[in-house]
Amino acid sequence: GIGIREVLLTSGCPGTETKCIVRVEECQAAVDCGWGIPISEGLACVKMPCIYIPPENRFKYVWKMLSPTKTAHILPNDSAIMEVCRDTHSVTFQCETQENGNIVASIKYTVHAKTEMQTEKPKRIETKQSRRKTTDTVLVFCLLTGIIVTVGVIFPMIFMILHW
């Protein structure tokens, strides 16, 4: 296959992170490159790329909508990037990158429902705010430590110069 994939750790990450990247590796042997991250993701729509290397037009792209109870539904989109708008329920998509009739890479995406995104957004904001508070606390600590060290060095030097 072609492309890269991220190997994620879902427990044992530093700090309060729930997911962290363990490593990024090339997908060379296996065709299945796992789960991808959309190019852009908003509350209304998502843009998802297939796996490809330049030139983009040397490959054929087959997009499928996957369902756990039904067979995969092949979509008419044959481009390297597909944009879908969120629905009332989550949907899983898969893109197969083909060259000369052979599948060289495959990647999947789950597009979450609008309601899931609306409930997930406050968590993200809360996490960013808590990170800011932690960062601010660390910066204030460093600043105060720097001032104390500076004063602790300058006053003894002045004292030594005056008594010399």
From TrEMBL:
Source organism (scientific name): Himantopus himantopus (Black-winged stilt)
Protein's recorded name: SACA1 protein
Coiled coil: none
TM stretches of this protein: 138-162
UniProt entry tagged with the keyword Heme: no
Keywords for the protein's UniProt record, in alphabetical order: Membrane, Transmembrane, Transmembrane helix
GO CC terms: acrosomal membrane
Any Gene Ontology biological process: acrosome assembly
Domain of life, per lineage: Eukaryota
